Amino acid sequence: MDGAADRLAPVLRPVRAGNGFEEALEQILQIVRLGLVPQGERLPAERELAERLQISRVTLREVLKVLQDEGLVESRRGRYGGTFVRMRTENPGEAELRRRIDKTDVEDILRFREVLEVGAAGLCAAHGLSDAQAERLREALAATQDAPLADYRRHDTLLHLTLAELSGSPSLAAQYAAVRAGVNDLLDCIPLLVRNLEHSQTQHAALVEAVLEGDADGAREVMREHCCGTAALLRGFLAAPVR
C-alpha cells in the first residue's frame, strides 16, 4: 500500500448494505474536507475507490457527480485525467463561520475530539509501535515542521489522523476522522496564527516523543493540553462579535 493509500485508510472502508450511496458520499466528503487529497490533486482511480468502498462503479459515479455539482471536485479527461479536488481561492470568512456555527454543536465536537485524541495517544504509547509505525509517525511530524504556512493545517490533520490510526482501533480512527472534519470546517474560517503554530509544533514534538518512549500518561497529558489550546483558540474567535 502506497503513501496516498495509507492517508486514506482512516476514512475509506466498506459501506454497509442499504446505504451505499450515502455512506460513500460521506467518506469521500471527509477525504476532501480533511485535505487527505490536497487541492488540485487527483482522487484515487474509480476502480480503487469502488473496491475499497465495496460499491458499484455506477454508484460511485453518482457520488462523484454530486461532489462535482457542489463544486468540490472536477472531472478531467485524457491520459492524465480523473477526478480532481478543486482549488479554493478564498477564506470562507466570518459570515461563513457564523453559518457553520449555527448548524454545529461546537462544544460537543471539541469535547468528543479531546476524548478520542487523548485516548488514541494513550493507546499508542501503552501498546507500543512497530519500527514501521514509529517511522510513519516521525514522518508525519516532520511533514508538519516542513510544511509551508498555507499547507500547514492539512499536514497537521494528517499527523493527528496517523496517531488515531496507529491506536489499533479502526472504530476510533473512523470516529476521529468524522470529528476532525467538523473541527476543520471551523478552523478554515479563522486565521493562521504563527505564534499558535509554533506552540502547536512544540506540543507535537513532545507528544511524539512520549508515544515513542511508551509514556502513556505523558502522551495523554500533552494531547489534552494540545486539544485545550485549539479549543480555546476556537472559542475566542467564535465569541468575537459579528461586524
Notes on the structure:
This protein has helices spanning 3-8, 20-33, 46-53, 57-69, 93-102, 106-127, 131-146, 152-166, 170-187, 194-212, 216-238, and strands at 73-76, 82-85. The relative contact order is 0.13. It has eleven helices and two strands; from the N terminus they run H-H-H-H-E-E-H-H-H-H-H-H-H. By secondary structure, it is mainly alpha-helical. 67% of the residues lie in helices and 3% in strands.
Main sheet: strand order: 1-2
Low-confidence residue ranges? none
Structural class: mainly alpha
* Rg for CA atoms: 18 Å
Order of helices and strands: HHHHEEHHHHHHH
- Largest pleated sheet: 2 strands, antiparallel
* Distance, first to last CA: 49 Å
Query: What is the residue-averaged pLDDT?
Result: 87
| Number of continuous helical runs | 11
Helix content: 55-70%
Oligomer: single chain
Broad shape? globular
Q: How many strand elements?
A: 2
What share of residues are in beta strands? under 5%
How are the SSEs ordered, and which strands pair?
Layout: H1 3-8, H2 20-33, H3 46-53, H4 57-69, E1 73-76, E2 82-85, H5 93-102, H6 106-127, H7 131-146, H8 152-166, H9 170-187, H10 194-212, H11 216-238
Provide a brief overview of the structure.
This protein has 243 residues and is mainly alpha-helical.
